[in-house]
Structures are given as structure tokens and as C-alpha cells.
Specification:
This protein has 17 helices and 16 strands. The chain is of the alpha/beta class.
Length: 477
């Protein structure tokens, strides 16, 4: 029986919604792999579990939703914090640390040689870990490029919360994206408290008190400094971030057997930053929702109210603010034909007011205070067009996949991989360009038959079963 180790920075069955679509994908991947009789499945996470009572870094077994079908472990006291933004204050650990290499090497020896190690992320690890490829040459190292962490410590190539980043070298610009310092000691202490809670240990009052004191002290420090980083530290971080990207690309090129980009656009960006084109493969992820995909329009437009829908988060990078501003500027004679559904938690009073004012312009606005996947059939009922207006190079948005599966054509920005869900240019606008967005949207109001172009030019979404079979060609190559 062959052995596979799947790595992600956070446990695949965590229940707090952290890790986003990568966590969902990893859980689905493992769910299908454990059903196979020819593979023994292991899972490892790092950068979240800390026990300050012990100085050493070590690996311990964990429980998971699949029981003994998947043997799961976590690294405790990793020198590299995860997720990525928590390592912002110490990026040099990513390329200087050697502790994790030795700990994982011991783990490899104890478990027995793995046939495949499939990295879903590199967050929580140091690059020296990849040097284990030299000691275990028969083990395939495969990396799925779900985000841009190797090129961007903030993972999204999203500059100063304002615009798409195409900075070639990195460094000083990376600091301006994340101006607030990360207090490593506070993070580790908080993670230790969480570690005890998950183990159902009794937390001594003195530790809870100390946690409150640390929060207060660091809060005062941030208030006094404005959360800004001193000049000397900025210079050090700038140089470290430049080396971070350089070392990342070097190690990927040297030690990865295959790098699986989840979209063509992701592959283009990877090669732009120096990843060897010969190592990059296009591998669209499979999804559970693909099992029910309709492959045609679920709710044809009848010429009445045109129903559009936005799913996700109230974040600028996701394009939510862009969408609201665009609809505010939409000509009234067209806006009156729209019904808008927002499945998003709206917490800002100013945005609540803007949406209230927008209700006077659009014929109808329906708001769901967030959603889960079970809510989608109800939310998407009678929707003619999904809107995914992201402003960053989103590798392959899960919401676009979900809406397509439910028979909803999707109008997306030209940034990232969502535009690859159909070849029709009718459903792609220039990212961040309100005029182009409104132009594309208004076409469907005038010529509803163009909605069919989405399906005429759309490929079938891969199911998890089909995706697993594709992965086997890389695992067993």
C-alpha cells in the first residue's frame, strides 16, 4: 500500500471557517482518498499549536473526522507561525530555520518513507523542509498553488488594500501592505491558551489573567506607536521580504516534482515570478458541488426583474464595495429593472446606510446575513446572474464554481482564474472598471438571450472523483 502525506497549515476539519476554500478542498480530497484501498492517508498541520511548557518543537497525533482512516498529526511549537500574516514580523524564519527540517525528517523515518507529500500550502513551514527531497529522493513532492504565498507574504498580491500588485522584486512595498507589527509573543501565548482548550485542559486563572495583561500592554503599545514599524525595522523587513521571494522560487524550482496551478492565470503569475514553466501543471480543483451541476441556465430571464446575486464577504478585495458603488452609479432606467440578493454579513453602519439608499434605486434588495453551503439552493432561487467582482488575482473563486454548478451564469472580473469558467467574453469585465462592468451588465438587460452564451462556451466542472483520477497521474507518474 502506498503512503501519502497531505500538508496544510490548519487541520482540514477545523470548524471555525479558517483556511477558506483550501480547507474545504483538502477535506474533500482526503474524504475521497481514504476510500481507496491502495493508499494510506496521513495529514500534517503546523504553525497553530503551541505549548509554552515545552521548549522543543515536536509532532503529536491528533483526532479527525475520519478516525483511523486518516492518520493526522500536528507540529507543536513551530518556529514559523501560520497563517502567513502572523509570520509578517519574522519572514527570515521561513528561509533560515532548520528545526522543522529535523523534526519532520524524524517523522518521516518513524512513519516510513512516503510515496507522495502533497503540500496544499507552505505556510507554517520553513523552506529547509523541502531539502528533505535530497534524503528521500523517491518521495514525490507536489505543491498545489492555491494562493500566492511564495511571492507575497500577504498571500493575495493585493497592494495596500487598494489595488492588484504586480511588484516584481518585493521588499519595501510589502511593508506598506501590512503596516501594523505582529507581536509574536502575544500570538504564541494566545495559541497556547487555545491549545489547552482543545485538549480540554483546565486553564489556570493566572494564565487567563496574564493573557488579559498581554492584550492590554500590547494594545497600549500599538496606540502609542500608531501600530507603525520603526525605520530600522522596516529596512530589515524590506531586505527579508526580498530574500523571502527569491528563496521561495529557488526552493520550488529545485525540490518540487510538480507544481499544480489551480488555473491558467495562476500558472502565468507563477512563471512571471520565476517558477520554472516546465514544473507547472494546470489542475482545476474538483468540488463536491460539481456532482449536482446543471450545465445550463436554471432560471431563464423572462424580461421582468433581472435578478443578480453576490455571495461572500464584505471586503474591498472581494469587490463588494466596487459592486455597491457601481450600482449607485447605474442609470436609473436600468437600475429599476434589477433585483439584488446579497448573501454577506454587513457590519459597517456606513455600508448599511448606502444599501438602504440603494433600495430606493433598485426595485428590490434581499439580504442574507451570511450563508453556508446548505443555504445555496434557497439563496440562488430565481437568480439569473451571479456577480464575482474581485479586485485581486483570485486563483479560482469557490463562489463562482458554486453558482455555475447551480446553473447560474457568472459575470466576473478579468483578474484571476474565474474568467476561465467560460470562454465567452460576455461574462468578463475589466477588474475595477465600473464603466465596463455596467456595460456588460446592461447588455443582458437588453439582450437576455446572450445569457445562453455562458453555457455554450463553458466546460464541465470536474468532480472530486475525476480530480482524484487526474492527481493519480501525478502521484504515480
Amino acid at each position: 500500500m502506498k503512503k501519502i502525506l497531505i500538508y496544510n497549515w490548519i487541520p482540514f476539519d477545523e470548524t471555525e471557517g479558517k483556511g477558506g476554500g483550501v480547507s474545504v478542498y483538502t477535506k474533500n480530497l482526503i474524504r475521497h482518498l481514504v476510500k481507496r484501498s491502495d493508499w494510506e492517508v496521513y495529514f500534517l498541520s503546523s504553525g497553530r499549536a503551541y505549548d509554552i511548557r515545552k521548549r522543543k518543537t515536536f509532532i503529536e497525533p491528533t483526532e479527525n473526522i475520519f478516525g483511523e482512516e486518516c492518520k493526522s498529526y500536528q507540529i507543536v511549537n513551530s518556529p514559523v507561525l501560520s497563517s502567513a500574516h502572523l509570520s509578517f514580523s519574522s519572514p527570515w524564519l521561513c528561509y533560515e530555520d532548520t528545526v522543522l527540517k529535523e523534526v519532520i525528517k524524524k517523522f518521516f523515518r518513524e512513519i516510513g518513507d512516503f510515496d507522495v507529500v502533497h503540500f496544499q500550502n507552505l505556510e507554517g513551514l520553513s523552506l529547509k523542509v523541502l531539502e528533505l527531497k535530497e534524503e528521500f529522493p523517491k518521495t514525490k513532492f507536489i505543491y498545489s498553488l492555491h494562493n500566492y504565498y511564495p511571492f507575497c507574504p500577504q498571500v493575495m498580491l493585493w497592494k495596500e488594500n487598494l489595488e492588484n500588485c504586480q511588484e516584481k522584486t518585493g521588499g519595501e512595498c510589502c511593508i506598506s501592505c501590512m503596516p501594523k507589527d505582529v507581536h509574536r509573543r502575544k500570538v504564541i501565548f494566545n495559541q497556547w491558551i487555545n491549545y489547552q482548550k482543545k485538549r480540554e485542559e483546565k486553564i489556570r486563572p493566572v494564565w487567563s489573567g496574564l493573557q488579559n495583561v498581554m492584550e492590554s500592554v500590547y494594545g497600549i503599545y500599538d496606540k502609542l506607536t500608531g501600530g507603525k514599524i520603526c525605520v530600522r525595522r522596516k529596512i530589515k523587513l524590506s531586505r527579508a521580504f526580498q530574500r523571502f521571494r527569491k528563496e521561495m522560487v529557488f526552493y520550488l524550482n529545485k525540490y518540487m516534482d510538480d507544481i499544480l496551478a489551480v488555473s491558467h492565470r495562476t500558472a502565468e503569475i507563477a512563471t512571471f515570478y520565476g517558477v520554472e514553466k516546465e514544473k507547472v501543471r494546470i489542475s482545476y480543483i474538483g468540488s463536491e458541488v460539481a456532482e449536482i451541476q446543471k450545465g445550463n441556465e436554471a432560471y431563464p430571464y423572462d424580461g421582468g426583474l433581472f435578478h443578480i446575486c453576490y455571495l461572500g464577504y464584505m471586503r474591498r478585495v472581494k469587490g463588494f464595495h466596487f459592486l455597491i458603488e457601481a450600482l449607485e452609479k447605474m442609470p436609473s432606467h436600468l437600475a429599476v429593472k434589477l433585483k439584488l440578493t446579497l448573501a454577506v454579513q454587513i457590519r459597517e453602519d456606513e455600508m448599511k446606510k448606502r444599501i438602504t439608499d440603494l433600495k430606493k434605486k433598485l426595485t428590490e434588495i434581499v439580504i442574507y446575513d451570511g450563508y453556508n453551503h446548505d443555504d445555496l439552493p434557497e439563496i440562488l432561487k430565481e437568480v439569473q446572474l451571479g456577480i464575482v467582482p474581485h479586485l485581486w488575482e483570485d486563483n479560482l473563486p469557490q463562489v463562482a464554481i458554486e453558482m455555475k454548478a447551480y446553473g447560474i451564469p457568472v459575470l466576473v472580473s478579468d483578474l484571476g482564474g474565474a474568467r476561465e469558467l467560460t470562454l465567452s467574453n460576455d461574462f468578463c469585465f475589466v477588474g475595477g472598471d465600473i464603466d465596463d462592468f455596467l456595460k456588460k451588465l446592461s447588455v443582458f438587460l437588453r439582450y437576455p438571450e446572450k445569457l445562453n452564451n455562458y453555457w455554450k462556451n463553458a466546460s464541465k466542472l470536474p468532480t472530486m472523483g475525476e480530480h482524484i483520477e487526474e492527481l493519480m497521474s501525478y502521484y504515480e507518474e
